[in-house]
Amino acid sequence: MPWIRNRSLHVVIRWQVLLTAFMALVFGWILGLHGAVSGFLGGMVSVMSSTIYALIISSHKGYTAGGAIRTALRAEAVKIIVIIASLWAVFAAYKEVNPTAFIGVFIMTVIIFSMALFVPNDSKDIK
To answer: Which residue, 50, 52, 55, 20, is CA-closest to 38?
Structure first.
């Protein structure tokens, strides 16, 4: 994801993807195919919204504090809209969704996104 310039966001999105894949396998083993798909979709709702957030943050070109705050607020608003629309779309379209797997993985990936504060942001390029 070279289009995401913020190292912290890049790292936590990668963690979200890994957790989503792992939990989809776990729920697939425990609950079967619909559990795996539900877990995968729950994680992908968060991964998708986090990626959109990161893209908006990475496109920020201003150098003022006010511009940075406006960009952060705009990114957060778009992220929330994407989450609400995605959650509704999954529950409306996928009738066999397992709510426990879906919401459980979604919550875990949202918590991982908040860990971006703990990722050191050094000046090295993202590999």
So the answer is: 20
Token couple for 98: 């397992």
CA–CA dist 59, 54 (Å, integer): 9
> What pTM was computed for the model?
0.85
First to last CA, the chain: 9
H runs (alpha helix) in 1-127: 7-31, 33-58, 65-93, 99-114
One digit per residue, pLDDT tens: the chain, 127 residues?
A: 566 777 788 888 999 999 999 999 999 999 999 999 999 999 999 999 999 999 998 887 777 888 888 988 999 999 999 999 999 999 999 999 999 999 999 999 999 988 876 777 665 545 4
d(CA 97, CA 58): 34
Paired tokens of 18: 């890994």
Size (the chain), residues: 127
CA atoms within 13 A of residue 93's CA, in its CB half-sphere: 9
The Cα–Cα gap between 85 and 71 comes to: 21
